[in-house]
TrEMBL record:
This is MerR HTH family regulatory protein. Keywords: DNA-binding. The lineage of its organism: Bacteria, Bacillati, Actinomycetota, Actinomycetes, Streptosporangiales. It holds the Pfam family MerR_1. GO terms for molecular function: DNA binding; DNA-binding transcription factor activity. Residues 10-80 form the HTH merR-type domain.
Length: 290
């Protein structure tokens, strides 16, 4: 807001990049990862940087040039007068949620995630809030060698917030064949499976069954025979769990099987689809019901 009470027009990302000498791609990364980005919108709906945003970016850019790690530089920049831009509907910014997690403030983390899921849904929360928070925590781990407790607390609160969304009231699970979601055998990283379940059930009304972490392939095969699911999604985070060979022995047509995650060590058997993003996984599942 200008001194005369009018709304400032703001700056586009190209103008800011030229002013700071920072590539536009870097500015987008700083926005996604650290929450330092445009807080205004033009009348046409385009995001614009205001003067407070520029001050924060100038500070961050200077600190990074001086050798400070980007995550620490972002925290210092966000403490400038004006702070991070306020989020709508009581939803915290990613930097605010990072600070709550670093303080091991379980209640603040839980409340922030609940507000985001209620106000924006699982897709927005995962892409715009959770992924930047995890990225910031990973950066802090690389800097300090610690913060495993922070990662675990945030993951546990996120899982607790996602679980109720897996079977929303009015889900057509009884009328349509469900989607079966599981982790590969011995794969313990199950959060992406629960995110996908929350998106499918909460945002698209698809009935889901989540088998979760470390699902033996024999148990997955038994569930497939019992439920006759429309789609089977299998997640592998780590390469030690990502051998695709056992997928060939699963019952039914391979076309109903979809795999995701960075752990798969080779292309899946013929007929099995592999996806690389949440949006792609959702699209692939929904296509089975058309």
């Amino acid at each position: 807001m200008n001194e005369d009470g009018t709304q400032e027009a703001g700056y586009g990302i190209g103008a800011v990049a030229r002013r700071l000498g920072v590539p536009a791609a870097t500015l987008r990364t700083w926005n996604l990862r650290y929450g330092i980005g445009p807080s205004r919108r033009s009348p046409g709906g385009h995001r614009r940087y205001g003067t407070a945003d520029l001050r924060r970016l100038e500070t961050m850019s200077r600190l990074v040039r001086e050798g400070m790690p980007p995550a620490e530089a972002a925290r210092k920049a966000l403490r400038l007068p004006g702070g991070p831009p306020a989020a709508p509907d009581g939803v915290p910014s990613a930097p605010a949620l990072v600070e709550a997690a670093l303080a091991l403030d379980s209640r603040a983390v839980a409340d922030g995630l609940a507000a985001a899921l209620a106000g924006h849904g699982a897709t927005w929360t995962w892409q715009r809030l959770v992924r930047p928070v995890f990225a910031a925590i990973v950066d802090r781990q690389a800097e300090t060698g610690g913060c495993v407790d922070v990662e675990h607390l945030f993951s546990e609160r996120l899982l607790a917030a996602l679980l109720p969304l897996g079977e929303p009231p009015g889900s057509p699970a009884g009328r349509l064949r469900p989607v079966l979601l599981a982790c590969a055998e011995d794969e313990q990283h199950s959060l992406p499976v629960h995110v996908l379940a929350a998106v499918l059930a909460g945002e698209h009304g698809v009935g889901v069954r989540v088998l979760g972490a470390r699902t033996p392939y024999s148990a997955l095969a038994a569930s497939m025979s019992a439920l006759d699911p429309a789609v089977v999604f299998v997640w592998a985070q780590r390469s030690v769990t990502g051998d695709p060979a056992p997928l060939a022995a699963l019952p039914g047509p391979p076309e109903r099987i979809v795999v995701g995650g960075p752990g798969w060590t080779a292309a899946p058997p013929a007929g099995i689809a592999q996806v690389t993003s949440l949006d792609e996984a959702v699209s692939r599942v929904l296509a089975a019901f058309r």
